[in-house]
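Researcher: I'm preparing a figure for a lab meeting and need a structural model of a single chain. I don't have an experimental structure, so a prediction will have to do for now. The sequence is pasted below. Please return the structure as tokens so I can convert it later.
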Amino acid sequence: MDTLTRRMTRAAVWSADGIRIRDVELPTPGPGELLVRVDLATVCGSDLHTVSGRRPAPSPSILGHEAVGHVAAAGPGAEREIGERIVWSVTATCGRCGRCRRGFTAKCEQVRKVGHEAFTGDWPLSGGYADHILLPAGVTTVTVPETVPDAVAAPAGCATATVMAVLEAAGAMAGRRVLICGAGMLGVTAAGACAEQGAEVLISDPHPQRQHIAARFGATPDPGGRVDIALDFSGSPDAVTGALARVDLGGRLVLAGSVTPGPAIALDPEAVVRGWLTITGVHNYEPRHLIRAVEFLTRTTRTLPWPDLVAEPVELAAIGTVLQPLPRAVLRASIAP
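Model: Understood. Here is the structure written out token by token.
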């Protein structure tokens, strides 16, 4: 293609040397692929860990895996049409391997991930911190009603869908005592979802500002005592140990925050056996969870203060100002390319 007729877009390309706004050629979507114009991207904590060096990632790359946008172009056989407003999954899966056939597509043997791929590879426009993103076949997409604001919809593809997977693993909520450890974006989202399902929700977090935010989503400060279900989003070994000790007969502990290496914790097998306890982990999610996330956000758009969790967006050129820790009262930064 002649350089004078090339169609270009902008992207924030991260590397160990920093972040630089670059012009990137717009690809033509292939079979099953979608080119999406990004309306808003939110900043997940894992991207902050990448930028700070706490999490390994391909370099250079375009980060960002929580976003909402409109389809700008669709390849042959794509499931969405131009103009549709969508959110999308973190994972691109093959659908054929043993893990996919078992229903663990998030752990596909050939998985590729939005916002986690090398800019120098065959999928350079893979992250949400850009004017456009290319979604390959194997990425789940869900349409979002226009009544759901961008700041509410964008976290669906990571935080909200992950919470839906955690709640599925936790089982029935109505009338249960539920302890949530960690009042970040996932913990607060879980508080709203558990409360909606009729649970008594207790929140544990060392920061009073975040406990106050969780209270607006139906949680009360944790007074201690036995619980039926414990959900850990903190990743703190002490929090996990403490939660496990409090799970009552027949209860469940679901771990979702322990995503980096850490010290092992003690486990008393006899207590697990005699207490009929279930301990399980959740990492990423399945397509059904993204669907449930959009349904949940659509139902609660007007009843829960979702927009208050997300800071006012900055322009793409100012992305460096938000790829850093935020005040505790702000759970998500956002970027409007």
